[in-house]
Design brief:
Layout: E1 7-11, H1 15-25, E2 29-36, E3 42-48, E4 56-60, H2 69-81, E5 85-90, H3 94-103, E6 107-115, E7 118-124, E8 130-136, H4 142-145
Parallel strand pairs: 1-4, 5-8
Antiparallel strand pairs: 2-3, 3-4, 6-7, 7-8
Amino acid sequence: MIKGIAITTVWVLDQDRAKDFYTDKLGLEIRTDMTVGGDKGMRWLTVGAKDQPDVELTLMAPGPPGLDPESAEAVKKLVAKGVLGAGVLSSDDVRRDYEALKAKGVEFLQEPQERPYGTEAILRDDSGNWFSLTQQREQLDLGKDWGECVDPM
């Protein structure tokens, strides 16, 4: 039985640049940075939040051995175009974190806004992926609050 999610992939265009962005700007820590399969193998680079040791993001560059050249190019184009949403980053104070990240040069697509589920800002990483930076509401009634957002068929 599945008991949780441990690692998920974020496609990046340059692993060194992504490593700097995710650690220096977002404040995540490096969990793994190694080459699998010898000198010409695949770089396995993971980061995670200090207070969440059981969850990691793999910062993966599209290419072999995971992707054939044609698929790698397609993924690179989608990432660079900014059409891939990589996930939700949680915050206990979105407005404070928005100001701090903006001061570090993080690009935001949306300033903090109130939503039925909490306060949300949208940021973009150095490759083009976007993340929701969200401070969840303390009291959330999914039936009532999400009903305001979702148009039932």
